[in-house]
Amino acid sequence: HPLRISVANQKGGVGKTSTVVNVAAVLAHKFKMDVLVVDLDPQGHASLALGLERVSTEFSISAALTSYKPVKEIIRETPIDKLHVLPSNEDLAATEEYISRQPGREAVVSKLIESLPMRYDFIIIDTPPNLGVLTFNALYASKFVLVPIQPRYFSIDGLRRLYHVIELLHSRLRAELEVLGHFLTMVDNRYKITHEIRQDLRHRLGESLLRTEIPSSVRLEEGHFLGRPCVIYNPDSPVSKAYEALTVEILERIGSH
Amino acid sequence: HPLRISVANQKGGVGKTSTVVNVAAVLAHKFKMDVLVVDLDPQGHASLALGLERVSTEFSISAALTSYKPVKEIIRETPIDKLHVLPSNEDLAATEEYISRQPGREAVVSKLIESLPMRYDFIIIDTPPNLGVLTFNALYASKFVLVPIQPRYFSIDGLRRLYHVIELLHSRLRAELEVLGHFLTMVDNRYKITHEIRQDLRHRLGESLLRTEIPSSVRLEEGHFLGRPCVIYNPDSPVSKAYEALTVEILERIGSH
Ligand SMILES: Nc1ncnc2c1ncn2[C@@H]1O[C@H](COP(=O)(O)OP(=O)(O)OP(=O)(O)O)[C@@H](O)[C@H]1O
Ligand SMILES: Nc1ncnc2c1ncn2[C@@H]1O[C@H](COP(=O)(O)OP(=O)(O)OP(=O)(O)O)[C@@H](O)[C@H]1O
Ligand SMILES: [Mg+2]
Ligand SMILES: [Mg+2]
After folding, report:
1. Any CB–CB contact under 8 A between B218 and chain A?
2. CB of B127 closer than 6 angstroms to any ligand 2 atom
3. A185-to-A16, B59, B96, B125 alpha-carbon distances in Å
4. What span, in angstroms and rounded, lies between the C-alpha atoms of A200 and A194?
């Protein structure tokens, strides 16, 4: 309590943010869970995708991470009942440098989460496209990490580095983090490469490759524009059904741990 | 001499690397220019896309940036005549932290380029998906920056931050950098959003939005797999023709400066 899950992959544009906001929305809206999204990306897109206006620094997660404000003054409600967010803005990049100079820099977000006054069932953390201090913090603060993978040739290359980071967090800092699973995103089955990469990943990852795949769909883009996750405003679309199925599979996997 | 161009956009997966390797290949192969690609992304994908095996740290750009080796021992030929590369590997992330502690940290790559023994006509720099010290170095070392933009809602949001960084490099460090232009990538005209974003960007950017657009095409993916840019192994495909046209438009713009 609460269940902390990071969505991470240092490759850019693979659907991390889209996954965070849609899985969080399914958990809150369909499963009536109390969910907090922690936006640990200076781009702040998870915050925007959940309907927030761009926040100023003093009302962003930076203010809490630098102890400028207590975290309960930073938490924001969203238009979705039971779904809250700790929003970020571009100053999180400078905050990352500030944090990175401190001893125990990987544990700053973990301590922040421990200090949360409310009880959440789930905390879902969005990460930036790199393996820097913010990502270390997300991973160290999490029980589980979910890895979205685009069926592209460069996707497999980056996994080794991500595992190496996780291994160092385990061996040096006794992190409790486990990989809950990997899953294919932006899947377009018309292309040969999709099938090639799927085969390759099934072979490499075995059970660690989730069954659910997220299809390529422009519907997700509309959600970003509206500031409402696709699973909320267009629940019958195939991509919404897929994110619902992904969330169910995640809950099953967590349950069997 | 040489003409230094960075390809930058902190949003992930918008086609920076694909643009760097294909424009560089057109310049070298079709226009017979001497071209150096500088891979300033710890992911090292530009290096892989140009046919190199993964390099060890002592043979990567990190070794030159930390003065461990002279840069001429790091430069590698590629299978494409007249196209060389300064390759990177994941240790460039650690090198970035090392560099970021030094005075004049934004000018390290610029000094490295000045020390190059060979004469190149063009230097094309690939950047990571963030506005960190490596990207500052790429921008500060460049005469021009090219900005690929995916027609997606989050794309416009990040441009402000990029301009802010460029403005600070100008005002604080007297950088000479200019935005050569922005261009749409991964364009799929079946989607309404593509037309919406195109209109919006034409309105906002005017002349600064290049005419050439790069269509969405799985052919680019094959090039990554083969380690041969698409413009080389499949020059008649629409995406290759588009990268050729983009290169011509870039040369025209440079010429009219
Ligand atoms: N299944 C999908 N189908 C179609 N488009 C998608 C899908 N998933 C994500 N996208 C779109 O692709 C782009 C990148 O997605 P997103 O921002 O979620 O990725 P990301 O991994 O968080 O990117 P970054 O590395 O920059 O943080 C967005 O414009 C998003 O709307
Ligand atoms: N025009 C295009 N059509 C189809 N796929 C493309 C196109 N341009 C790039 N891609 C693919 O999209 C993915 C991302 O492209 P690329 O790696 O060039 O982007 P990037 O901006 O360099 O990413 P990063 O932010 O991670 O450095 C790659 O798998 C690439 O093959
Ligand atoms: Mg994101
Ligand atoms: Mg890249």
Report:
1. yes
2. no
3. 9, 34, 30, 29
4. 10
Q: Is A134 in the pocket of ligand 1 (CB under 6 A)?
A: no
Ligand 2 and B151: CB distance under 6 A: no
The answer to whether B157 contacts A45, with C-beta atoms less than 8 Å apart, is yes
CB contact under 8 A, A218 and B191: yes
A203-245 pLDDT, tens digit per residue, is 999 999 999 999 999 999 989 989 999 999 999 999 999 999 9
Query: Do the beta carbons of residue B124 and residue B20 sit within 8 Å?
Result: yes
Cβ(B254)–Cβ(B3) below 8 Å: yes
**From ligand 2's centre to the CA of A53, what distance in Å?**
29
Evaluate whether B39 touches B22 at the Cβ level (below 8 Å): no
pLDDT of B143-187, one tens digit each?
A: 999 999 999 998 888 899 999 999 999 999 999 999 999 999 999
> Distance between CA atoms of A217 and A238, rounded to whole angstroms?
8
Q: Does B193 touch chain A (CB under 8 A)?
A: yes
Distance between CA atoms of residues B236 and B255, nearest Å:
26
Residues of A21-37 as b/e, b for ≥16 C-beta within 10 angstroms?
A: bbbbbbbbbeeebbbbb
Cβ pair B130:A42 closer than 8 A:
yes
SS3 per-residue string spanning chain B = CCEEEEECCCCCCCCHHHHHHHHHHHHHHHCCCCEEEEECCCCCHHHHHCCCCCCCHHHCHHHHHCCCCCHHHCCEECCCCCEEEECCCCCHHHHHHHHHCCCCHHHHHHHHHHCCCCCCCEEEEECCCCCCHHHHHHHHCCCEEEEEECCCHHHHHHHHHHHHHHHHHHHHHCCCCEEEEEEECCECCCCHHHHHHHHHHHHHHHHHECCCCCECCCHHHHHHHHCCCHHHHCCCCHHHHHHHHHHHHHHHHHHCC
Distance (angstroms) between ligand 2 centre and the Cα of A11 equals: 10
Instruction: Look at residue A76 and give its three-state secondary structure.
Output: strand
